[in-house]
């Protein structure tokens, strides 16, 4: 029930993002009475949808396309379809246009993708094909703490031989500009230097997930994911209270367990003076990554991409060649605004036609910018899209801008506009948010961190919340 707290809870979850809701569902499935406290007027955190430009045109506020949502070992086991969630798949999962009008194209069908990559067909098949058999079991190992005893060591080793490399090394297996750019865009989802150790990991994971499950959107918008999870939670006896900010422990009702879908910064404030010294030091050292600068656009007749495949793609990565994307990502990590940033575009209405209104399509666009960037990146982002879709600007009939400061003001987890829950370099992947056998435990009895600042990190997969809840349940014996 959305509204006030109506009963004493066994467990309280602070924050109703996908990880908070995943934690709440896990606890409720174990028979606990669960209350979720959300400071905002609406649930969902990064999975929210609103009319940001024109009446009736639904825009996803943060997350938009969900390869790890449909692939998640936890979410995929939940009966979310019974609670209204429907995945919609575009004809083309991902396109990466280049200046000559060609594009790297990712399709769910591995062989069809390889056929479109010409001389790189065998290399692409060799990189990603061996990871597809048994992928469900592999993801159960991968989507968790980096340091752990694997349940499927051989599969994990096969993945690690690719994912542990710098993206700049793995990409040497590819020769054509189209294939190299296609991998670059997926690797850049990590918001980090593509020459760093393990920077290939996100690109490998997203590519394999795309071949196995596709890159779908939620019908009606990402808010449908949160709505289905809330409905499931309520069916299990849990409740959600909105407009209930938690700024200190005094704002919490009594409970045996408290799970925080917050960043380490908020946990420091909430548990002021109670954290063990080692945990407090780790939380204070926690580093944030680059930020997002987002444009929500109402576009008449859609985006006029030069590359035909991009006109049919649910997701389009915009940034040119591998070399250009690597340079842009290195710049934002170093705190410099690139002239040509890496830009992501989602065209949800191609998979979910009901999202368009009278020929006007909601187009979701954001660029990677430095942490806390205070400048106006609107032109830089739009110029990148216009570069590969001449005439694009003239089709925009309404727009809304969300700066890094706007992200941070609207969602306290997005410190400095970092929507990925913290820097994702190798050290912080190992110690996220701190090094230890249980990265979810805060060291304060009964209190656990369950946000994307914990393993496995960003993405609408719910695994941070699910694993944190399992840790909390284990503490009850």
UniProtKB/TrEMBL annotation:
Note one Pfam family from the annotation: NAD_binding_8
Q: What is this protein called?
A: NAD(P)/FAD-dependent oxidoreductase
Q: Which domain of life is it from?
A: Bacteria
């Amino acid at each position: 029930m959305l509204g006030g707290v109506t009963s004493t809870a066994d467990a309280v979850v602070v924050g109703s993002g996908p990880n908070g809701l995943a934690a709440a569902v896990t606890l409720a499935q174990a028979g606990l009475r669960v209350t979720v406290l959300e400071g905002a007027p609406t649930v969902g955190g990064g999975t929210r949808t609103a009319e940001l430009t024109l009446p009736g045109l639904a825009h996803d506020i943060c997350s938009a396309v969900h390869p790890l949502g449909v692939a998640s070992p936890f979410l995929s086991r939940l009966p979310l379809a019974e609670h209204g969630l429907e995945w919609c798949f575009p004809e083309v999962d991902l396109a990466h246009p280049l200046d000559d009008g060609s594009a790297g194209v990712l399709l769910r069908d591995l062989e069809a993708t390889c056929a479109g990559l010409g001389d790189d067909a065998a290399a692409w098949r060799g990189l990603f094909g061996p990871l597809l058999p048994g992928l469900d079991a592999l993801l159960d190992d991968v989507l968790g703490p980096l340091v752990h005893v694997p349940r499927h060591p051989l599969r994990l080793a096969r993945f690690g031989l690719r994912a542990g490399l710098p993206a700049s090394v793995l990409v040497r297996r590819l020769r054509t500009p189209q294939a190299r750019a296609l991998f670059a865009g997926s690797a850049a989802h990590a918001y980090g230097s593509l020459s760093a150790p393990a920077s290939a990991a996100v690109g490998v994971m997203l590519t394999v997930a795309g071949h196995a499950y596709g890159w779908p959107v939620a019908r009606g918008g990402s808010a449908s994911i949160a709505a289905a999870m809330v409905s499931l939670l309520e069916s299990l006896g849990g409740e959600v209270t909105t407009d209930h900010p938690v700024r200190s422990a005094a704002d919490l009702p009594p409970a045996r367990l408290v799970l925080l879908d917050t960043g380490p910064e908020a946990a420091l404030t909430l548990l002021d003076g109670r954290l063990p010294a080692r945990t407090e030091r780790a939380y204070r050292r926690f580093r944030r990554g680059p930020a997002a600068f987002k444009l929500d656009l109402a576009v008449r007749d859609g985006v006029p991409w030069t590359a035909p495949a991009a006109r049919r793609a649910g997701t389009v990565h915009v940034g040119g060649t591998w070399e250009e994307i690597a340079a842009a990502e290195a710049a934002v990590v170093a705190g410099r605004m690139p002239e040509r940033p890496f830009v992501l575009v989602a065209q949800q209405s191609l998979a979910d036609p009901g999202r368009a209104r009278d020929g006007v399509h909601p187009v979701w666009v954001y660029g990677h910018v430095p942490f806390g960037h205070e400048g106006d990146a609107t032109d830089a982002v739009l110029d990148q899209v216009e570069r590969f879709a001449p005439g694009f600007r003239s089709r925009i009939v309404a727009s809304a801008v969300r700066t890094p400061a706007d992200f941070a003001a609207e969602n306290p987890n997005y410190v400095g506009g970092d929507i990925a829950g913290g820097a994702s370099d190798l050290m912080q992947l190992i110690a996220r948010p701190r090094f230890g056998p249980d990265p979810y435990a805060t060291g304060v009895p009964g209190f656990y961190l369950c946000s994307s600042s914990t393993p496995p990190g960003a993405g609408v997969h719910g695994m941070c919340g699910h694993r944190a809840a399992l840790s909390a349940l284990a503490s009850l014996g």
